[in-house]
């Protein structure tokens, strides 16, 4: 089988694992390796990945590094936030939503360079292997997929280091020791899992948190901000128009300063096990509250409740890796239709880990003060109409009660 692969596009970070994978692909499959490194806003310098790939024998024209931050936020994060998506009611899906974009770019590069395979560094126990591969196959049905963690015998960090040393793969001194936990990061969030976090009964150490200060250390004075929306997407902060990536970056800064966006979660992985993760989504946490705030005055009750009914299904599709599925696209069309009049401004109060909506306004607001006021003078609502409304809604309940009385139950 190995000789069938001639050229493979590898999702490459430049770290120990993917550098070992790169060399392993060369030695095991005897194939040419093309690397793709995405700048998703993870906060790391990416040029070292280029230099390391060159050092490992990759041709300069086969090293792809791309800044995809704007595309990530505008085409993946924002559509997901239009749905108010939360997996299992809490998780803002920061890792999940990045995988389809990486996969799409790998497939595009594979077509460009004539590769017959793609590869990723996800383990055989996690969700990411599913997300990558479902996306690959949805975009290129006949592509070959190599998942080294399901094939090789490098099952420990010691073996990885031994392989690296035997193949002259440079290892930074601070990477030789056992990492206390693993981290995945992008512009939306950072996630930490494993090692010191594996016992869900133990509180996560403070050093785990990288994107937020603790709520206790946040300022004693509240921060007020205003987020502007157009058709369901955030477009400004405090009156300043920003690109999608710049806007999320600004919300991240505000969230970090106020200790917002921490989540310690035990979740159900798609592959069947429970796992504990510590997530930090400062800007996303603010954005979710702001979006729900503007929807509260612009969405009709029926539309809003239908969205809430569908949201868990949408979130599950994203978490499981079905971004490119017809059902996710169908739900997206419905959600996007609901956002036609979700335009306006939301004022928020940020204080010691909390986000509160304290004001909202829209040129398309459905809020009518004349209807809801307790003062006299409302002409659009006749209190006497409520009697018939209540009796009609109570009809089936009265019928059931009469039956119960009749049969003596």
TrEMBL record:
Binding locations of ATP: 11-19, 38, 121
Keyword vocabulary terms for this entry: Amino-acid biosynthesis, Arginine biosynthesis, ATP-binding, Cytoplasm, Ligase, Nucleotide-binding
Coiled coil: none
Any GO MF annotation of the entry: argininosuccinate synthase activity
Binding site for L-aspartate: 123, 127-128
A Pfam short name: Arginosuc_syn_C
Arginosuccinate synthase-like N-terminal domain ranges (all copies): 7-170
Family annotation (PROSITE patterns): ARGININOSUCCIN_SYN_1, ARGININOSUCCIN_SYN_2
Source domain of life: Bacteria
EC class: ligase
EC number: 6.3.4.5
Reactions accelerated catalytically: L-citrulline + L-aspartate + ATP = 2-(N(omega)-L-arginino)succinate + AMP + diphosphate + H(+)
Localisation per UniProt entry: Cytoplasm
Residues where L-citrulline binds: 91, 96, 127, 131, 182, 191, 267, 279
Oligomer status and interactors: Homotetramer.
Protein family membership: Belongs to the argininosuccinate synthase family. Type 1 subfamily.
Protein's name according to its UniProt entry: Argininosuccinate synthase
Native source organism of the sequence: Ancylobacter moscoviensis
Gene that specifies this protein: argG
């Amino acid at each position: 089988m190995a000789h069938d692969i001639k050229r493979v596009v590898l999702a490459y970070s430049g770290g120990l694992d993917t550098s070992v994978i790169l060399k392993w692909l060369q030695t095991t499959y005897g194939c040419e390796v093309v690397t793709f490194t995405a700048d998703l806003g993870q906060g790391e310098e990416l040029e070292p990945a280029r230099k390391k790939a060159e050092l490992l024998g990759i041709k300069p024209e086969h090293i792809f590094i791309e800044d995809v931050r704007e595309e990530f936020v505008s085409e993946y994060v924002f559509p997901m936030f239009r749905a108010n998506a939360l997996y299992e009611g809490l998780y803002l899906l920061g890792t999940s939503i990045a995988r389809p974009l990486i996969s799409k770019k790998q497939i595009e590069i594979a077509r460009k360079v004539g590769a017959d395979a793609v590869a990723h560094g996800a383990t055989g126990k996690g969700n990411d292997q599913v997300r990558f591969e479902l996306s690959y196959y949805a975009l290129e049905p006949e592509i070959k997929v190599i998942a080294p963690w399901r094939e090789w015998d490098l099952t420990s960090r010691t073996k990885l280091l031994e392989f690296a040393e035997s193949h002259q793969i440079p290892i930074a001194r601070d990477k030789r020791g056992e990492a206390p936990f693993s981290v995945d990061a992008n512009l939306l969030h950072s996630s930490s899992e494993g090692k010191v976090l594996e016992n869900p009964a133990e509180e996560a150490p403070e050093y785990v948190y990288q994107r937020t200060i603790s709520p206790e250390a946040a300022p004693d004075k509240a921060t007020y901000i205003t987020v502007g929306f157009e058709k369901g997407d955030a477009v400004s902060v405090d009156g300043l128009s920003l690109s999608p990536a710049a806007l999320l970056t600004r919300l991240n800064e505000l969230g970090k300063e106020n200790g917002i966006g921490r989540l310690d979660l035990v979740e159900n992985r798609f592959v069947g096990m429970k796992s504990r993760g510590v997530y930090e989504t400062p800007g996303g946490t603010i954005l979710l509250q702001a979006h729900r705030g503007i929807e509260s005055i612009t969405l009709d009750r029926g539309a809003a409740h239908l969205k809430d009914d569908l949201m868990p299904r949408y979130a599950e599709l994203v978490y499981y890796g079905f971004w490119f599925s017809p059902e996710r696209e169908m739900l997206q069309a419905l959600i996007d239709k609901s956002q036609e009049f979700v335009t306006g401004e939301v004022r928020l109060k940020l204080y010691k880990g909390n986000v509160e909506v304290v004001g909202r306004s829209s040129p398309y607001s459905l809020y009518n003060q004349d209807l809801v006021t307790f003062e006299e003078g409302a002409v659009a609502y006749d209190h006497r109409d409520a009697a018939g409304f209540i009796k009609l809604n109570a009809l089936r309940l009265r019928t059931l009660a009469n039956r119960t009385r009749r049969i003596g139950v």
